[in-house]
Amino acid sequence: MSASLFLDPRLVASTSNAKLELGTVQKHRANPLFVEDYFADRPKRWEARLDNVYPNVIYDDEDGLFKCWYKSFIYDEPSNNTALSQRPSQPYRQGAREEGLLYAVSADGITWEKPALGLIDFEGSTANNLVMRRATHGLHAGGVFKDRREPNPARSYKFIHRNASAGRMATCFSADGLRWSQPVLWDEHDAVGDCHNNAIWSPERERYVCITRGWSAGIRKVLRSESADFVNWSKPVEIMRGEDAHDQIYSMPICHYGNLYIGLPSVFHKGDKGAANWDTVDTELAISVDSVHWERICPGEALIARGDGAYPDGAYDCGCVYAAAPIIHDGAIRIYYGGSNGLHNNWREGSLNLATLEMDRFAGYVPADASGCAIVQTNPILLIDKRMTLNAAVEPGGSIRAKLMDAGGTELRGFTLDDCLPVTQGGASCELRWRERDIAELGGGAIRLALEFQNAKLYALNAVGVLAGDSA
């Protein structure tokens, strides 16, 4: 990936009358992609309540398939014993529960199959899509990923979770993502981990990075741990928490994107019962350059908006939205998410859903005063091509102009704002050009770029994938 996102704090040196604005997410018209099938014509009794779903979705190019591991309560006392038609008139009171990890597969990521795997017994039959259950693996709220750098085939798939039976964090391994080892408990350190635990490989740190959860005086907080072998983990350290007890970070799946880390914190609005968003969950956006220090982008604004309405007639995702880590497929960003149609602590039916973003468009700079011009100036950058292009949106009547400077900030002759040919149409590769000079003349070396724009949105700068002084 040769684009540098304007989200990246290493890219932007200063701004004037500019602010970050979230990108435009499109929910797929086929949503919900699948729902809990407990009350289907041919019921799957092990999908009593999908709840948060906690989806983990990959595209496995070796098999040419989308694969999803998701959470269900395979037994939830009130859900098992209350028909859908009766739920709106009866209070939900949590009772006895057991969790399971379920598996679904898809050729296109839209139409999903829940295969009868024949692996885990449920009520006397293995004709289900269970790959783990608490009774056999002690699982609670885990994350699955395929480790393409793992030399041991038996450990190709990795799972990190809170082992509820042992009361400790744990890991499991699998050759196929279906048949899993028994849990390997964290030996030295631990975390509460009662959330969507997840892990990735960090190429810069050459370590696995786990994102989990802790608590402090009744407040949820996001914790981070790392490991060289996915067995021995460092002491979990706090990396994020909500601003107060009313808006708490529930979980945060992460991914590596270009030379950044993207996090999707789920914000639980636990606040006053009279608040409009009380007991709902929104998915927001966060970024990091090292997986250690994180910045929330547009805090308080949902990247994936909840649907309209309220239980039981509201949209499939009107109550809660819990995202999976983003994946890239066919030139677009896919964010699968668990949606539910009711409040967090009430009746709700869960589903798997899909939202998409154009490449590099998680968020971008717009004029803070919509009627005026904005300026964004970069730190020194290194050109890696003979063209420089922007990923930008330009509204009718809008424009973008640019000037080039040397690393010390002195304007380069022929590359001033007045010399620039304005960009008046948006796209993924809007070329920056000047009237008398060509950027190819500059050769190597570090330069700075200043962009002046109105009625436009700047997402990324292409052909400068290596920042000056950055070894990534």
What does this entry look like structurally?
The protein is mainly β and 472 residues long. It contains 2 helices and 36 strands. The strands form 9 sheets. Strands 1, 2, 30, 31, 32, 34 and 36 form a 7-stranded antiparallel β-sheet that branches. Strands 4, 5, 25, 26, 27 and 28 form a 6-stranded antiparallel β-sheet that branches. A 4-stranded antiparallel β-sheet has the order 6-7-8-9. The relative contact order is 0.15. The model is unreliable at 468-472 (pLDDT under 50).
- Shape annotation: globular
Low-confidence stretches: 468-472
Q: Strand portion, in percent?
A: 35-45%
Largest sheet: 7 strands, antiparallel
Q: SSE layout and pairings?
A:
Blueprint: E1 4-5, E2 12-16, E3 18-22, E4 26-27, E5 34-35, E6 56-60, E7 65-76, H1 77-80, E8 97-106, E9 130-133, H2 134-137, E10 139-146, E11 157-163, E12 168-174, E13 184-185, E14 198-202, E15 207-216, E16 219-227, E17 237-241, E18 247-251, E19 254-257, E20 260-263, E21 266-269, E22 281-283, E23 285-288, E24 294-297, E25 320-323, E26 327-329, E27 332-340, E28 350-358, E29 363-367, E30 374-378, E31 381-382, E32 389-406, E33 420-421, E34 427-431, E35 433-434, E36 446-461
Antiparallel strand pairs: 1-36, 2-30, 3-29, 4-28, 5-28, 6-7, 7-8, 8-9, 10-11, 11-12, 12-13, 14-15, 15-16, 16-17, 18-21, 19-20, 20-23, 21-22, 23-24, 25-27, 26-27, 27-28, 30-36, 31-36, 32-34, 32-36, 33-35
